[in-house]
Amino acid sequence: MGQSNMKEIAIVAYQQSDCVSDAGAANEVELIIPVLGKVFEQVGITNAQDVDFVCSGSCDYLQGAAFAFVMGVDALGAVPPIKESHVEMDAAWALYESMLKIRMGHAESALIYGFGKSSPGELPNVLSQQLDPYYLAPLWVDTISLAAMQARLMLDQGLITERDMAEVVARSRRNAQGNPHAQLGGDVSAEDVLAQQTYVSPLRKADICPVSDGASAVVIATVEKAREWGVPYAVISGIDHCIETHNLGVRDLTDSISTRRAAANAGVGDGRVDVAELYAPFSHQEIILSRALELGEDTRVNPSGGVLAGNLMMASGLSRIGEVFNRIVAGEAQRGVAHATSGPCLQHNLVTVLEKGETA
Amino acid sequence: MSDENNVGEDNETVTGIEAPIYLKYNFTAGAAASRFLTRIKEGVLTGQRCPRCSQVYIPPRGSCAACGVPTEEEVELADKATVESFTIVSIPIPGNPIEPPFVVANLVPDGANISVIHLLSECDNAEVHIGQRVQAVWKPQEEWGYALDNIRYFKPLDEPDVPVERIGKLPVTGLEG
Predict the structure, then answer these.
(1) Which of A174, A331, B92, B163 suits A160 as a labelling partner, its CA being 20 to 30 A distant?
(2) Does residue B70 sit at the A interface (CB-CB below 8 Å)?
(3) Mean pLDDT score of chain A
(4) What predicted TM-score, i.e. pTM, was given to this entire model?
């Protein structure tokens, strides 16, 4: 989606909760409300009545509670009624839907939030049920095993080394030390990672993102509306997503063709990329994504620590966009790329390009 | 159906496959619901008051659905209530042990502003009406659990009706308070 002849849309607020391994008794509303309160505060509004559209991303399978997303509406202040929608996907796709709503002229602003409480279930097994229901789901192929096979392909073809993977982990842990919401941060070296035993060969536990509970929220608006609110913003200069086939045997798992295609459509290569936040749940996938996005040495990758330091299913993709927004409004970057993924082995990928606004 | 879509003379049409799904979860009720359920196990109904609009919710969910703000103040409620609306169910519901006809009512406990749904019994169904005063009939204490059905049902009280405009606006002390 390019911006020509259309109203420019910008991110104006972002908040993520802490990534915690177990949110205890907190229900969906109790996870969502604090981050909504923060983004309302950033924009200077009261509740969802003050935006034109609300869209959320979540998946009931994660916590095993039917229609948890309906309960989520209790966090919004939906009296009188509001315009609301939901995707059973990462909330980065809820942001995409919200952009379409604004593009169609039906809204000037939107609240987007994603939440996930994965700790009540066995996440890798829960996610096996997103696979082909006839041939794969009955085999209970879990996400870690699938990613391990992908990593094995890459190692065997000499496309990466175990040290490359360990270096991704070490950088994530070090960067996460500066992120107060991260779950796993620390002064870890590649040697420390390589000294770990393999868990699901060739993956070590550190190559795998942790299971986290939490939520994140973003407010987007037309640039006119952002200026009216008088808040700093980052313009969404491009966004696109592409999906690959269910059939893992047909895909080239050592590359991410869908990311390449989405990146081209979003215009990633049209300028310098100062910062990139990539949704790579496994260390080797960060390398696949960096190559697919053709990121160079001058791009800071995952300064937040990325999802290896804390992975909020259904919110992490939205958080990647929010993290790039934070770098731009903090003046650390002029232009950045955020990536979100869904499905096994990077099946479905969304790429967003953010740029510093003229008067931001 | 075209020939290409047929499975062929030698093959059976497969109408089902066995693919059992079992996922195990550690359920948690939520902080607000946990407080409510803990108190109802002790025979006490509690709600939560919205800090913005002052409405008292029962059962509480930790937020004011109208304002979208967290609700933290716990409010102890009476087990007396007022009928806000009702229906008489005349058909059996599969799996429900209650014999029809029975009365399902929207009841507002004294001290709350939002109704809860429960059963009415020990009453003449034809006499049930909006504004009617009712009180909880609890199960024996030894049967109390973390559930709203610690209350078997509500039964009519010999008290004057509540005018429609005052339903949902009574203090915990009830009609006189």
Answers:
(1) A174
(2) yes
(3) 95
(4) 0.93
